[in-house]
Structures are given as structure tokens and as C-alpha cells.
Structure prediction request, 466 residues.
Amino acid sequence: MDYLWWYVPIATAPMLIAFIATVHVFVSHYAVGGGIFLAAETQWAHKQENQKYLDYLKKHAKFFVLLTVVFGAITGVGIWWTIALASPLATETLIRTFVFGWGTEWVFFVLELAAAFFFYYLWDRLSPRNHTIMGWIYALAAWISLVLITGITAFMLDPGKWPEITQAGTQGTAFWVAFLNPQFLPQTIARTGAALLLASSYVLFHASIFTGEDAELKTLVVRRSVRYVLGGIALAVIGAAWSGAILSDAARMAMLRAAALNIILGAGAGAAGMLVLLLLLLVWKPKWLTPVAGVAVLLASLGVLTAGEFVREALRKPFVVVNCVYGNQIHVSQVAKLRETGLLENGRWTKAYMAEKFPYVVDSATGKLNLDLVKPEDANAVGEVIFMHHCNDCHARTLGYNGLSLLSTSARKGELKELLLNLDSMIYYMPPWCGTEKEADLLAGYLESIAEPHPAAVEKKEGGAQ
Ligand code: HEC
Prediction:
């Protein structure tokens, strides 16, 4: 409750995180898998003294460095911007817990960048042996940064024993407990697999354009790169199955219950099937690697990755950091106090806002907000403030993501307040109610004021008018 709120109409702020993170993952996983591919393949090509393949790999390395360094770095910084604005409390929790891990990650990132530039720009000047070593330094540094980041992102889905330990005050060991969380190993395996899968897809996409009419080269690139896809799929399936098997009951139920997730999972499986089919066709007839086929391969594997990321993100509801921070940036330990003394009263910015906009509700004796004083004409405006801070992270106001004017439609008078007071028991991907009863009253009034009329009621009215 110490941070300002970032209002994003229609999409809601967390959806921006999901969007930028997904785009970033497209490139960051390629940065890892592509590194392994380039290191292993240049090593092989140097050994075979296959100049034609080396020339192709150099072309690919240029594409790789441009895309991963420029786009990867921009979207990576973009994630920091959006999470800090959209999820400040969760970001604070991650920084406090993992500052050492992040520092280490940046060291490897710098190493990665330096190795990538040396690998590409000294291509013809390094001896084959040193060139190969440079490639592997890049690949290893990139993979280690994947491992470090995975520890942190997996923590948000399942922090293991960390919440209990930190409450007990044993902060010293907390980093490793947090980092080596139950989801760390399975997700590292799954992401390594995804990185290999994506690398080959980018290679096939690039080769579909840059190998031109050279059938021999095309065949070589297809045959070499498909081996990485197969390894990648195997790792991704093992990692994802392991990760799914140890999900909490709440997360598993959320996955099975939500219609949107069922559709996304189905679409992801469809994309995976299409990818395998395309690859089989290409292995059979490498000359079919036209730009259209290259784009199709890339889109299919991006589809698989998008589905995976969306499902992983959605499974955390109602939390951002499971068992610690709720989706609406309220810490689990704050809920009791908020219910007793109020959401508006305890938020640093909500309190200041109320005092500025509705100074008459500030009790002059105690300095506290007295919401019983809210004038009827201001009630909905105050309700809207509560909506912004309590609900807007997961619900748009009207049209858009989970828009509340539509979700509140069916409510009869008084029904909404009941729902609010029992938010978490009605639908378990919502946090518990984090305010006083009076605040529930004000929010319910506001929601009723924006609710679309129930279609049945509208029809009846229209029927009656005829
Ligand atoms: C952490 C995310 C999150 C927060 C915060 C949240 N909700 Fe929800 N809410 C959801 C999800 C997810 C659904 C389910 C939507 C669906 O079934 O498609 C939902 C459903 C609803 C529904 C429909 C209930 C039904 O019976 O179908 C209403 C009404 C609602 N929320 C109101 C609120 C209000 C009011 C707040 C703020 C006090 C709030 N929610 C806060 C995630 C959240």
C-alpha cells in the first residue's frame, strides 16, 4: 500500500507485463539456444573444414547478434520498467530477495555481450580453436543467465518454504531457499528445451531466406538444426510435465477450470503438433524450406512458447508471488489490518488522495478517514478509488480485460456487497476482501452504477414498451 497506482485502460497494467515478457522471451530463449547452436555448429564446421557452412554460420551469427543484443536488451529493460510500474510491491519483494542473484546475472550478461561481439567480429582472425572456445564462452554465459533468471521467475509460482522462513526471521539462508524453490529445476529443464527449440526455428527461418537456391546447403542446415529441435522438445516435455506434476492444487484447479486457459493450452498443443509436422516434412524434403515455410516454423514455435508463458503467468492467481503478494499489490500479512481499519486509510497514496479530494471525510480529531461522512453525491467517486486499488490489476473498468461493468451485470441489489466480502471463497483466483464493510458498500454502489443492464431485463422492458 506504499506505492502509486498505474491505471492502464482496457488492458490493465499486468497485461502489459505479460505482453512485453512474452515478446522478450521469444528473443531471450533464442539468445541461449542460438548460442549453443552456433558454438556446437562452428566447432563441427571448423573440424570438417566446411567453408560453405562456416560462411552460412557467420551470416547467421550476424542476424543472431543484431536480434538478441538489440531487441533482447531493449525488451529486457522494458520488463524492468513495466514490472516496477505495474507490480511495484512484487518487484520490491524480488529485489530484496534476489539482489545478489540479479547482480550475478548482470555479470554473466556482460560476459555474454563481450563474447558475442568477439565471436562475430573476430570470426576470421581467431584460430578455429579459439573461435570455438569463444562460441562456448558465449553459450555457457547465456545459459547461466537463463538458470539465474529461472530461479527468480519460478520462485513467483512456488516460493517453497521461503515465506515461513522469512517470517521466522532467518533471512541469512533465505536467498538459497528462495532460489532453489521446487519449480526451479523443472523449469530450468523446460526453458533449456524451449531455448533449443526456438534456436532451430530461428535458424530455419533465417536459412529459408539466406540459403537461396543452394540445395546442398539447405539440406545441410535442415538436417543439422532439426537435431536441436528434437532434443529441445524432449527437454521441454520432461520439464513441463515435472513442473505440472508438482503444481499446488490451487494452480492445477485454476488451469483446469478457466475456459481461457483450456483454449490457450489447446492452441499451444495445436501449434506444437503443427511444428512437428512441418519439421518432418522439411527433413523429408529440405528444398521445401521456402520463406513461407520458414515463417510457419517460427510462428508455430512462438505459439508454443506463448501458450506456455500465459499458462504459467495465469496459474499464480490470486498471487503475483504465491503466498506473499496478491495480484492487487497487497501483502498477505496486510489483509487483516486492511479489513479492520480500511484500504483507503492504510494506503499512503489513497489516504493523501482522499484528503486532497474529499477533505471533509478526514476526522479533525484523529486525522483518520471517516467514510460514514462521504456525501451521497461523492459515494461513487470514492467507490471508484477503491476499485482502482483493489480490483483494477485484474479487471478493466468497463470494456476490456475481465471488464467489471459486464461481470457485475447479473447482480441484484445487495448481491455485490456479499460477493465482495467473500471475494476469495466465491472464486479462488481472487484475493480476500481487503477493506472495511463500509468500503465494500461504497465499492458495491460504484459497481452497480457502472454495471450493464441485465439482457433479460432489457428485453422485458423493450417488450413492455411495444
Ligand atoms: C488477482 C486477480 C483478481 C483481483 C485482484 C480481483 N479479481 Fe475479480 N476475478 C478474477 C478472475 C480471474 C475472475 C474470473 C473471471 C472468469 O471467470 O472468467 C474474477 C471474477 C470476478 C467477478 C465475476 C464473478 C462471477 O460470479 O462470475 C466479479 C463480479 C469480480 N471478479 C469482481 C471483483 C472485484 C469487485 C474486485 C476488487 C474488489 C476483484 N474482482 C478483484 C480475478 C481478480
Remarks:
- The domain at 332-452 is CATH 1.10.760 (Cytochrome Bc1 Complex; Chain D, domain 2).
- The chain has a mean pLDDT of 92.
- The pocket of heme C is lined by residues 317-318, 327-328, 390-391, 393-395, 402, 404, 407-408, 419-420, 423, 427, 429-431, 447 (CB under 6 Å).
